[in-house]
Write a sequence for this structure.
């Protein structure tokens, strides 16, 4: 077997995608016009497939802070914090995140992916057990593989299944790490956190919640599903990313555990990679303030989500079960999903195509994500485009 033979499956899958003439996983935005609009293939397009939930990527204060940091501190840090030193602003942001959550400490990582890798490898090893919601993000699965820990998967959003598996662990449950997400990014469904907290109270263990898609969106102060469910005191670690509602790139973990600071020294994904550039830290410090004070933005986002959800539901589309800023439309048949996705793009709507096995339902998905920056007109235009194209979708056989 040659080194490259294992890529044959990908070659074949890509050939199928090429039949429609566009690679849905390689779309380039030629010009970004605003948080919700871009030029794609020369066409003015509404962006309904970004994670720009609060629409803060063009916030003037954040741009000004990033420009100033670029001018004063340069384009990059050129190294890792442990080997090459922190910029004092890294620590400032850590303190601001800790105080935003009202906890003792925070570690900033270079991406959200690395935050999961760093935390899970920093906390667990071959003798540890991690219980995962089956639909957890790839970064959590990859982290467990890297840590070499024992993984026990439980059914998605099913606290009874978690309890059953904790019970089977006996004494070992007391030191197990349970990992779930706040809002799941494929179907936009929220975790039953209170129920998990009950399981933890009964069997012990530690709870880590990845709030990547829920930070800024839920809770009075925007701290996420843990805040909304009023269970922050029972959650040991909250992981998050700067790449969605905060409009940048980076990741973090906050915790009241005094051991958090020690994880830095055990987390290779923290030690052996370059720290986030000063401009990113500067813009994130500003967007974090806007997020904390962002009740009006949150309300706008939820109103937008409701508008899109109701509009698509009225068309009779098979959409995700809960109203949230992520709206997933199930489309039976890979070829149909691909064709529909392309038609939408040609009519000026960009959303995400997700194909099995990456979908939790095993059915292809068109995934739309809302922003507080979408106008009602843009949302109505998205719904209208679905309406116009629906007859063309219905004409394609499921097994085409
Ligand atoms: N966790 C979850 C739940 C995610 O959805 C993502 C990204 N989609 C990440 C972590 C990784 O975040 P980042 O893209 O900032 O590396």
């Amino acid at each position: 077997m040659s080194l490259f033979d294992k890529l044959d499956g990908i070659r074949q899958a890509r050939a199928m995608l090429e039949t429609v003439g566009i690679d849905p996983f390689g779309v380039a935005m030629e010009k970004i016009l605003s948080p919700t609009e871009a030029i794609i293939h020369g066409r003015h397009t509404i962006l309904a497939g970004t994670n720009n939930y609060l629409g803060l990527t063009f916030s003037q204060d954040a741009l000004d802070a990033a420009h100033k940091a670029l001018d004063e501190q340069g384009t990059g840090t050129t190294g890792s914090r442990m080997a090459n030193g922190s910029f004092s602003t890294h620590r400032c942001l850590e303190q601001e995140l800790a105080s935003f959550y009202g906890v003792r400490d925070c570690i900033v990582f270079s991406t959200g992916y690395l935050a999961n890798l760093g935390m899970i490898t920093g906390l667990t090893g071959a003798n540890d057990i991690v219980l995962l919601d089956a639909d957890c993000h790839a970064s959590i699965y990859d982290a467990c593989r890297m840590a070499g820990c024992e993984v026990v998967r439980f059914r998605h959003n099913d606290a009874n299944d978690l309890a059953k598996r904790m019970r089977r662990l006996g004494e070992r449950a007391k030191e197990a790490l349970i990992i779930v997400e706040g809002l799941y990014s494929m179907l936009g469904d929220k975790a039953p956190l209170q129920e998990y907290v009950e399981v933890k109270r009964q069997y012990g263990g530690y709870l880590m919640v990845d709030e990547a898609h829920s930070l800024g969106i839920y809770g009075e102060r925007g701290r996420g599903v843990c805040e909304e469910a009023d269970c922050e005191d029972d959650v040991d670690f909250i992981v998050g990313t700067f790449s969605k509602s905060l409009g940048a790139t980076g990741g973090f973990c906050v915790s009241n555990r005094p051991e958090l600071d020690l994880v830095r020294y055990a987390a290779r994904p923290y030690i052996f990679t370059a720290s986030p550039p000063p401009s990113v830290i500067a813009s994130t410090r500003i967007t974090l303030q806007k997020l904390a004070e962002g009740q009006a933005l949150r309300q706008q986002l939820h109103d937008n989500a409701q508008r899109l959800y109701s509009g698509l539901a009225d068309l009779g589309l098979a959409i995700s079960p809960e109203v949230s800023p992520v709206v997933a439309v199930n489309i039976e048949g890979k070829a149909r999903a691909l064709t529909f996705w392309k038609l939408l793009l040609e009519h000026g709507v960009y959303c995400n195509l997700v194909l099995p096995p990456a979908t939790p339902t095993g059915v292809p998905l068109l995934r739309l994500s809302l922003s507080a920056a979408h106008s009602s007109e843009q949302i109505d235009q998205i719904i209208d485009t679905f309406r116009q194209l629906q007859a063309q979708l219905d004409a394609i056989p499921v097994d085409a």
